[in-house]
Amino acid sequence: MDLVFADSPQGGGDVRNEGIPSWKAYLLHTAGDRKQRGLHTSVTLQGAELLAVVASESNLASALLKVFRNRGAAGVDGQNVEEVAEASPRLLPKLRRELLEGIYRPGEVRRVWIPKPGGGQRGLGIPNVVDRWVQQAVLQVMEPIFEPTFHRNSHGFREGRGAQTAIAQAKAYLDEGYTALVDIDLAKFFDRVNHQRLLAQVGERVSDEGVLKLISRMLKAKVAMPDGTKTSTEEGTPQGGPLSPLLSNIVLDELDWELERRGLRFVRYADDANIFVRSERAGERVMVAVRRFLEKRLRLSVNEEKSSVTTPAKVHFLGFRFGRTEEGKFGAQLSAKSEERIKNRVKEMTPRTWGGSLQSCMDKLNSYLEGWAAYYRICSEEGAAKMRVIDAHIRRRLRAIIIRQKKRPRFLYRHLLTRKVPEKMAARTAFERRGVWNRSNRRGMTLAYPNDWFHERMESLWTMWVRFNPPPLVSSESQLSFAF
Description:
single chain; alpha+beta; four-stranded mixed sheet; 10 strands; 52% helix
């Protein structure tokens, strides 16, 4: 089997470019060595050969370059990515030897808690940088082995697939008339993966005992909790390491093919799966059968609170719900949770007590809104209408900051006059007693700071959506037909 290394720099030979740090030149040269790559692409998956590929100098160098690009926080040992990268000429040969001799042992995983949008907390595991380096090296060798075998309806953590392709496939099923959705959410999936079953699944395609032992040690690495306690890991694949997404897809690939065997239409992204059927009654039957398979066969639990048989308008799938367009087709729209989430985030970023310049506040908003708009660009025009409402909400919050920064009504009154607001209108706005939020939408403020003023200084969600979705060009033939 030919192995292709992800993100391996092309070329090789001398890389004495000025301005490149010596460690980076070393990694680029090692990762791009053609002799090494040619040797490794012809190996088979027998004996200890796969571990040799993982521990090859070119693969380790390529893996560290990828870890460096991804950055990330330091682990328990306190070493950051820059420190490990700078020491790579010394660390790489040592790490290679430890891997080949089987004496490498992963360090503890630092547990951090991040708030979940719907409430509660999600545990995130941060391995040491060296351990992320090893995980990335294993990933680059294992991914080409497993990727071709994954089901086409699996969209999470796969090259060329993602939320956009998952939503497009979901819309296609809805347009075919499968408008009852079995929405399945797995309870604490990443914390409950059975190690024995996972290693058995990996072993079906990987015969190298050294690689299997290496993965087992990674899975069983102790977790250092925020309070200083350390816990052993008997199940789960901690989120935060490069290898966890691939391992999760290996576990749930069995579910994908079981749904295929049953002739069901489905879309899965990581542990979030939607099954499309024609009626609610059929959905209830499918829910019972799938729950039984997950619990009995995969030893996983369904989150009963978040799983249900629902309608396209009520589903929350990757931040979207589905509604009819003017043409009668289904289109993606913001889910209620997504709308609430962005409003809460905007509220955090535009506090009334903002002490910096208004432009600095708008610059921070721009960075967030650009990423948000890029993700939700696949909304239909009907769905994008909500973006106009959010844009108006953002402008009103910014106007409220302006009012608060003026501190006193008379100062605001004078400021509005400098903005060419008529005296009576400025007075009614500045001396209104119903609070900052009420005044932020009075005619005096909207005249002083109209929508165009904001458009010149920051992006709006609606204009970004229009940019992502330009109207179709009218052909010259169509224009002629209109003329007649």
